[in-house]
Protein 1
Amino acid sequence: MSDATLMTPPARYSERLEGCRELIAERGFGALLIGVGPDLRYLSGFVGEPMERMTLLVVPYEGPVSFVVPRLEAAKAGATPLVSAGAAAVVAFEETDDVAALVAGLISGAGTDPARPIGLSDRLWAAHVLRLQRALIDRRFESASAVMRDLRSVKDADETRILRLAAAAADRTVDAIAAGPLVGRTEAEVSREIRARLVEEGHDVADFAIVGSGPNSASPHHEATDRVIAAGEPVVLDIGGSLGGYCSDTTRTIWVAGEARIEPDREFRRVYDLVREAQARAVAAVRPGVPAQQIDSAAREVIAAAGCGDYFTHRTGHGIGLEVHEDPYIVAGNATAVGPGMAFSVEPGIYLPGRWGVRLEDIVMCTESGVEVLNRSGLDLRAVRG
Ligand code: ZN
Ligand code: ZN
Ligand code: ZN
């Protein structure tokens, strides 16, 4: 989509690079080497797939920033907002060039103190890392996420706007599926419809469409199968894609009542209400300064107190942005305080193996004063007639 509301304003990239360089200095790095992936997209606007040819944004502690790309991608790199704004220069290499040596030359040319470590982006292929390590034999390497995590986990106004649009598009998809029909269709068929609808509703691409019916709902990352959905069972829908580069991710558990209007039994009701309560408690716990693990325990305590703790088998949530799973992780042991601009999922679940499961997931955003829930598709148990 070329809709202006989905665009990150070009000037934003230079600001991000500026912020990145401040943190490079503050965290003591000599340079960051950012390969193709979400970190590179965040800093430069470059969208692509990693490949065997090295593509690296070389951000030294000081001095010029170079965008090292194979010759065939020089024009594409030159058209990124970062390069267009003059904040980085394209350094194109030929197929026969030693790229790692070229990068080593850029780093030593920038005169960075050799004692300072070089930060590598998390998604940089091991094949590239090994070549860089050989070319920079006396340098220490660390994860660039010590810098990138802090930048990317706090969403700016544009990112927030796009995340809201992505959530709304996913909500419309959930609503359409929950309207039925479901009975007599296979999980795979419904999954394909979800993918098509996600795109119809504005996503660039549908990334996943989990449809877990009956006993399959007890497997949190179930892949849709040829199982035929029947009346009198639940279906867990966990769907998402990306829109303007930013991800959606929402889960609803719905009840397939069928023509006979079969009601869920008392145990299913109880578990559904429990998950809903846990989800609500965790969302209510979100405000600036609260450790991520406290949001996790807000959900977990509700489920544990009801004796279902062993059936809540995953963390409560994950950050979301250019990646569907990113910092901050809402998990025991993560003492990082959440702050304004952080977007993450709150998705407790209870899974009774061989029987059924329930999960409810919303993306929320920590605000200056509390929390904004981005998904609005409603958490009342919905019964599908058909
Ligand atoms: Zn998941
Ligand atoms: Zn999900
Ligand atoms: Zn999720």
Protein 2
Amino acid sequence: MKATETKINKVNHIAIAVKDINSAKKNWEQSLGCNVGKIKELPEHGVKVLFISFPNIKIELIEPLGNNSPIEKFLDKNPKGGIHHICLEVNDINKAKEKIVKHGTNILGDGSVKTGAHGKPVIFLNPSDFSGTLIELEEG
Ligand code: CO
């Protein structure tokens, strides 16, 4: 691999939007016996989050928090909840971004790298470019 290339290391997490994170937590924890973390409130991102850990991947449950949650619209369209985004882990987010822009794929928002809900640099890609699926890239 050339030094200028960027690499996707793995699927970091699959995020599921939920209406009630407490009852969702119970199902994953008690019915399935999964390794479920603690619910965290992230008011600056407008969500409550909870990670369910597996050896190679996490599932992230997200519930809207506050009035301007970025997942409110999604839950209006999907009242039972549903898969909200897939997060791919990249080794260098700025290089990944360069490549994406070069190929004409659209980055959401103003196109700049932001600090995501987990304190790492992220960008979100336009679902129209990925068959209706929201893709998050996270540096890790
Ligand atoms: Co995410």
Protein 3
Amino acid sequence: MPQVIKIEGGHRLSGSIEVSGAKNATVALIPAAILASSVVTIVGIPNIADVASLNELLAYLDVDVQTVETGHIIIDPSHMVNKPLTIDAVSKLRASYYFMGALLGKYHHVTIKMPGGCDLGPRPIDLHIKGFEALGAKVDYHDGTYVLTADKLVGARIFLDFASVGATINIVMAAAMAKGRTYIENAAREPEIIDVITLLNKMGARIHGAGTNVITIDGVERLGGCFHEIIPDRIEAGTFIIMAAAMGQDVRIDNVIPQHLDALLSKLSEMGVRMDIGPDHLTIGAAPFLTAIDVKTMTYPGFATDLQAPLTALLTQAHGRSTVLETIYRQRFNHCEQLRLMGADIDVEAPLASISGPTPMHGAEVRATDLRCGASLVIAGLLAKGVTTIADVHHIDRGYEGLDGKLERLGAHIWREQVD
Ligand code: EPU
């Protein structure tokens, strides 16, 4: 039965929470694990719906997956069968496209439905395809299904027109066992990419340049098992940091790599938020006065598009007119309409949103149109007077591990109800 999240706003947050493993690393690490010929153990896997969907895909491919304790999975692909991935689970998330690179790299053949995921406007995968073709794959697309085949994969020089996270990871996976050397130029540099390359190198791959914009992959014949621990989720951390900046009284956020959040922390400091930054934790409190700012989303290390919606909720409380320029997904503004229902004063002329504040927020019935919109509405709900009801919370559950439980521990008045 569908659920709604309800929040009674106005309660201060205090105490500490621990950030989970990075969702956007996890959803690539799991498909990457199937490139191995033996067991891969990963620690720090968040308990989110996207992981359940990926595990469903692994089970369908006869990959043995065991969860020995929370966050600890053992993936054994030694009996895997390369079946067409046309089942419904593929459409439940964007990251199912990582099976393209992984299956192509391992079997030189893959049949897969178009992936699903959040509606953020157009999300083409032409750069992934360009990379696979450069490595020697033939790509057919009919009725929503891709068929990729290659007699052999041979290293190539691939320039990405845009530093796409997904294309970079997918091409790395396809090239890991190709013959010879592949260069990916204008590669994306997000920490999640470094995490995936770290896993592949532990499996025996020879990949250099992770975290820079040129990645070099020397194909190897075989990849083996390994043990890997996931990096913390910088977007979840950022979401809690923003919540604490909105409603916190010295909230401590543990399991953070502060360097991954430099762009957000610098913007919050410009707004007047007080922060105490430790080596792996931060302590944040709400600022008595927030100043309006201008933000532009960019590829890493710029300001993350995934934190744009959460930050916009906070900007409703800043004095003056803030602007948000969205350069990654130029139409990623669905949250603005929902925030307006709660009292926000936001004009959107994509790719620019202008937020005038401060505006008092009030409880309303709103809808999480996508994952980060959901996070933005939770922040607005914490700030609002009265009760906010958020529908379509399955989007939130796709990417935040136990968000409401963590917030309850910090003192938020948040609960779930079943609806018809
Ligand atoms: N793009 C193309 N062609 C391509 C690939 C991308 O034009 O072949 C464009 C996209 O349309 C978009 C831009 O390039 O305008 C960036 O796309 P990118 O490929 O970098 O994003 P992604 O891999 O699809 C991942 C995260 C997103 C996050 C972006 C940007 C996963 C599963 N998703 O998406 O996360 O917003 O990188 O950092 O890792 C989220 O967590 O809420 C989320 C949407």
Protein 4
Amino acid sequence: MLEIQQLPVLNDNYIYLIHDLDSGETAAVDPAVSEPVLAALKLNNWQLSYVFNTHHHADHIGGNLVLKKQTACHIIGSEADRQRIPGIDQGVIEGDCLNLGKHTIQIIECSGHTQGHIAFYIPEFDALFCGDTLFAIGCGRLFEGSAEQMQQSLRKLTALPLATKIYCAHEYTAANARFAFSVEPDNADLQQAIGRIKHLRANNQPTVPTTLQQEIATNPFLRANSPEIQENLAMQGATELAVFTELRERKNRF
Ligand code: ZN
Ligand code: FE
């Protein structure tokens, strides 16, 4: 059995702790800072075995070195990010498998936000830790990759089972939903989601994890083929890539 803890840190980041009850192994995903991780480990009486980094940005690797010093954890990141991830011990690529106790974790390369961005997927638990690639009702900004690359990465993620839980690295959902509503106001699933999100945020509750099924129904970046979105963008019949590119540019300015 795995236990997943979600630690809200900085303005809107989430760090995840994945703990395997059988082996006692624990991984921290994208530790932006070290203190809340160390506090949670102490509270649960867990030892940190691994840090998993999805990409090199400061709000995902900021706690690496202190955690390594304090816990002697093993730091795993993208082979492509070897020079940019502090304290990295092991570089991984698409298709590699890691273990947390007896559980298998698959590496999915999903560049676009950065080059060499990776996701950690645990098929047995329908859990995907995808950093800044797929967000609830949004997707990451294109800092190092192209729209085409991001769309291909998102296609890889949306090919996973619909029940997959999406543990993304930021609580951006309310702002993402406002943008989604501006391009697809008649989407009933989106309208319902907005109600839920407002309620959750008003109570200071996380809207993450979401599920792949929910994202396919509401996330404009997965819905470039929606006739309503195409019409609102005056892009009827345009390619999905052209629509996706326009959506990403509009979101940047929104
Ligand atoms: Zn980032
Ligand atoms: Fe980030």
